[in-house]
Specification:
Blueprint lengths: L15 H8 L5 H4 L3 E5 L3 H13 L2 E5 L17 E2 L11 H11 L6 H21 L14 E2 L6 E4 L5 H18 L3 E4 L2 E9 L2 E9 L5 E5 L2 E4 L20 H8 L4 E2 L4 E7 L22 E5 L2 H8 L13 E2 L1 H5 L9 H13 L11 E4 L1 H7 L1 H19 L8 E10 L2 E2 L12 E3 L17 H21 L13 H18 L7 H15 L6 H21 L11 H25 L23 H4 L1 E6 L8 E6 L14
Parallel strand pairs: 1-2, 1-10, 2-6, 10-18
Antiparallel strand pairs: 3-5, 4-5, 7-8, 8-9, 11-17, 11-19, 12-16, 13-14, 13-15, 15-16, 19-20
Helix pairs in contact: 3-6, 3-13, 4-5, 5-13, 11-12, 15-16, 15-17, 16-17
Length: about 650
């Protein structure tokens, strides 16, 4: 039976990382040349890890399903990246960033991992500036910072509304340099379909070439999963359509525990759903909440008129506007954490105060900041975001408030890893959004980019050496080993099985049906009856999927429908595990909101006595219930208190 060992170093919190680095093994430059590492995913986590480890001398093979490494979904991040540099002189510090992150995650993350993240955050900014990332600057040339939700200081570095793009381009340039030197072997349009385990250690992967349809074998001394989150299990999300949980799910099916799958983040500032044929949702940066005020009408009759299109927001008198976040959370106002803001918007809309034709929208209004600062200032800060909003909605946000509504955005759950970022399978690592490690039950805004680059630039390059130091005498992995043959056959059999169903319904129809189940019962609010029903509905969906799936096109060629079919098959299984995890966790915390567990004023109510642990699920085989392992969370440096942003 699997026994989880988090390998958290002993000693004072502020010294754990430095003492750990001093104690772990290292690999000499001459020996690094003998070792191969596979990195799956080329976003900020995977790209930075690949570039860093190649620079150190390892032989790196990088894989992505896109046609270019720079098309990773990290490029879509808008608002910024956190770092505790205290440039604003507003009393920020490593400890404050650590505490804000622990509190923002509703006390469901490891102290040691979060403190390490805060420690290396400043180095990330220096690294990216050296790469030429064009962060916003003050008039005197110093880097600019802005506020984000869940904190009372300004620690978010940004490049207008294109921060993820600029960071990824810097990372991608570093990768290209190593590709040019022959230290990174790049495999675009290649998707991981299975992981090869030999004698208990991860030794390679099986992929499908998405252009030719060929199945390929790739061996290495270690495998790193950096493929992002699984938000697309809901079909409609802010993720790119191709984002999937396949690599993480294959890690799970090969024995790696999957941690906290029910922890999913709902982002409060997204453009509302506008049609049945919509395939994804568009995020509006959290940075907009710095200068935009969130409100709905105070009078229900005004909301009804707005929903019928009889009046516009500008027809609502000032005294008839309910700035509900400022009213309910005076200390943080519009900058409460994402889970709090999302539930508050849902509550207003559920009560009938929604402002669009569906009743599922609230206003994000810049009227007041334009009056206070001038249109030119707002345009300089958010112009590209305003332009994007107008192109999608055909409404001018300088003249009318934006309409926003919560949507699935990020997954805090993921593959379980220890302090070294290694899964419970030796040699298999998971970094960035693909793992569970740093955000607890809710991620603070601008912390995703921070974690991805921390893992890739400043954590994994150190910790992977502790494992690889014992692999120096292991020769290059033979891809003709029987385990590679076995796994290739399993992949081929799986794809053939899906392709030969020859039913009548498209892949997307099953994906949409799954998304409806997940949003309805495993979305912003959950309860016991709904979660039990979700599990039954997903099981019925799985039966229908295997009976009536239709995949068009050719098997041995480029076939997008075949790609999607494998991903949706994984999503169906993952959705059921998410519902199981949510059913087991009989408390509300962060993005996991159980209606049975609320405070008197309607806020999330934790149950620290029974649920202060990481849920780590172990796969037992097809058709069998997974085993739940519990990693107890120990808090020695922060006091567990009911989270409040009032």
């Amino acid at each position: 039976m699997t026994v989880l060992n988090s390998k958290i170093p002993a000693g004072p919190l502020a010294e754990k990382w430095s003492s750990h680095k001093a104690a772990i093994k290292v690999v000499s430059p001459a020996n690094k040349r003998k070792l191969d590492i596979i990195v799956v995913g080329t976003g900020l986590a995977g790209g930075s890890a690949a570039a860093s480890m190649a620079e150190m001398g390892y032989n790196v093979k990088a894989f992505c399903y896109q046609d270019s490494g720079r098309r990773a979904h990290s490029i879509a991040a808008q608002g910024g990246i956190n770092a505790a540099k205290n440039y604003q002189n507003d009393n920020d510090s490593v400890h404050r960033l650590f505490y804000d992150t622990i509190k923002g995650g509703d006390y469901r993350a490891r102290e040691a991992n979060v403190h390490r993240l805060a420690e290396v955050s400043g180095d990330i900014i220096d690294q990216c500036v050296a790469q030429g990332v064009p962060f916003a600057r003050e008039y005197g040339g110093t880097l600019s910072n802005r506020s984000f939700g869940g904190v009372l200081v300004s620690r978010t570095f940004y490049a207008r509304g294109q921060t993820g793009q600029q960071l990824l381009l810097g990372c991608y340039a570093s990768m290209n340099r190593m590709i040019g030197q022959g230290k990174i072997e790049m495999h675009e349009r290649n998707e991981l379909l299975d992981i090869v385990i030999i004698d208990g250690k991860a030794r390679g992967i099986i992929t499908r070439n998405l252009v030719t349809g060929e199945i390929e074998r790739h061996g290495a001394h270690a495998v790193v999963i950096a493929t992002g989150g699984y938000g697309n299990v809901f079909f409609l999300s802010t993720n790119a359509m191709g984002c999937n949980g396949g690599a993480a799910w294959q890690a799970y099916k090969n024995g790696a525990c999957f941690a906290n799958p029910c922890y999913v983040q709902i982002h409060p500032t997204c453009i509302p759903i506008h049609g049945e044929q919509q395939s994804k949702l568009t995020l509006m940066s959290e940075s907009l909440r710095n200068d935009g005020r969130v409100w709905t009408p105070k009078k229900k009759e005004d909301a009804v008129k707005l929903q019928k299109g009889q009046i516009t927001a500008n027809d609502i008198a000032e005294e008839d506007r309910d700035f509900y976040l400022e009213r309910r959370y005076p200390s943080y106002g519009n900058l409460v954490p994402r889970d709090v803001a999302s539930r508050a918007a849902k509550e207003r809309c559920d009560e009938g105060f929604g402002v669009n034709e569906t009743g599922k929208a609230v206003y994000l209004d810049f009227k007041y900041s334009i009056e206070r600062l001038g249109k030119d200032v707002i345009e300089a800060r958010y112009g590209n975001l305003f332009q994007m909003y107008e192109k999608i909605t055909d409404q001018n946000p300088y003249e009318l408030p934006m309409q926003i509504y919560p949507a699935i955005h990020y997954t805090m759950g993921g593959v379980w890893v220890d302090y070294n970022l290694m899964t419970n399978i030796p040699g298999l690592y998971a970094i960035g959004e693909a793992n569970f490690s740093d955000h607890g039950a809710n991620r603070l805004g601008a912390s995703a980019l921070m974690q991805g680059l921390a893992d890739g630039y400043f954590v994994l390059p150190y910790t992977i050496g502790d494992y690889l130091a014992d692999e120096i005498q292991v020769p290059r992995i033979d891809v003709n080993h029987q385990e590679f043959v076995k796994k290739e056959k399993a992949v081929t059999d799986r794809m053939t099985r899906l392709f030969n169903i020859k039913g009548s319904k498209s892949v997307d129809s099953f994906h949409k049906r799954l998304g409806n189940i997940m949003w309805e019962y495993v979305g912003m609010a959950r309860n016991e009856d709904g979660l039990k029903l979700a599990i039954k509905e997903i099981q019925k969906l799985r039966e229908d999927f295997y009976k009536d799936l239709c995949i068009t096109g050719d098997y041995n060629a480029m076939n997008i429908e075949l790609e999607k079919a494998g991903r949706v098959e994984d999503f169906i299984d993952l959705g059921e595990l998410m519902a199981r995890d949510a059913l087991d966790r009989k408390e509300s915390c962060g993005g996991h909101y159980r209606e049975e567990s609320t405070t008197e004023d309607g806020e999330a109510k934790r149950n620290d006595e029974n649920f202060a642990y990481v849920s780590a699920w172990e796969y037992q085989g097809e058709g069998k219930d997974p085993i739940l392992h519990k990693e107890e969370l120990v808090f020695e440096n922060v006091k567990l208190t009911q989270r409040s942003y009032k």
